[in-house]
Amino acid sequence: METVKTKKFTERLFENVKPIWEKNHQHPFVQELGKGTLDEEKFIHYMKQDYVYLIDYSKLFAVGVMKAHDLNMMGNFAQTLHETLHFEMELHRQFAAEFGITREELEATKPTPVNLAYTRYMLNVAQNGSLAELVSCLLPCAWDYWEIGKLLRKQYGEHLSTNRYAKWIETYDSEAFGEGAKWLIQLMDELAEGKPERELTILEEHFQMASKYEYLFWDMNYYKQDWPI
Ligand SMILES: Cc1ncc(CN)c(N)n1
Fold first, then answer.
1. SS3 state at 163
2. Is 204 a catalytic residue?
3. CB burial class (10 A; 0-12, 13-18, 19+) of residue 203?
4. What pLDDT is stored for residue 51 in this prediction?
5. Which parts of the sequence belong to the Thiaminase-2/PQQC domain (predicted)?
6. Separation of CA 218 from chain center
7. Separation of CA 100 from chain center
8. Which one, 20, 38, 94, 178, has least CB within 10 Å?
9. Rounded distance, CA 181 to CA 183, Å?
């Protein structure tokens, strides 16, 4: 008997988000980072903003621990929280040290309107929504960065030795980061399993919204936007 392969929910998400992610991948911030030509001030703006973004992003994993369905899932959220604080944010601390920025200065960064709107959106869903909603919100952050890491390695990998931002590409293209993204993709599929279309639509809205915030985040840093007053 012929078996019909049903499409995974994340395959649907990936197909529909392509136009947004393509814009993220072609954003001048991303492309110039890949080439190593990105203006230092723009990168510093990003490093500082991203550091405080990641403090809030880590809290989403803590909510994941609270809402996890079993010990295994709880452990995975706890591990991802740990890796964000000690692996991903270490990248920012290292770059900051290179640019003469102290840890205190990094941590004291005030989030810009876009940064605040993005993290508040996710934290609101995390606290008031289901576990599936939480994962749909935080997934683009992990997944699209992994895609960008792989893409920049493919496009500009030959010139990494002369790219001052090489460590950034190596981090997001790394096996460790990819494993985290793959776990979240798999978890999204498990949590979406058997859900009615009404609920899947809401999950997809969060996924698309977070993906659009990713674009705004690149733009905000490229143009060094901050509070006008
Ligand atoms: C804004 C943003 N989005 C995603 C990532 C990858 N965790 C990040 N560091 N910053």
1. coil
2. no
3. buried
4. 98
5. 16-222
6. 12
7. 26
8. 94
9. 5
The pLDDT value recorded for residue 1 is 65
- Residue 2 pLDDT exceeds 80: no
Maximum Cα–Cα distance across the chain: 67
Query: What is the distance between the alpha carbons of residues 148 and 46, in angstroms, rounded to a whole number?
Result: 16
Model confidence at 5: pLDDT above 90: no
Which spans in the chain are helix H?
A: 9-26, 28-35, 40-67, 71-83, 89-98, 103-107, 113-128, 131-156, 166-172, 175-192, 197-222
Index of the ligand 1 atom closest to the CA of residue 115:
1
Atom of ligand 1 nearest to the CA of 141: 4
Sign of CA dihedral 129, 142, 201, 189: negative
For residue 173, give both structure tokens: 């293209």
pTM of the model: 0.96
The structural domains of the chain, ordered by start, are 10-222 (1.20.910.10)
Using most ligand atoms within 8 A of CB, pick from 57, 88, 93 the residue to mutate for ligand 1. Answer: 57
Distance 143 CA to ligand 1 centre (A): 9
User: Is 137 designated active site?
Assistant: no
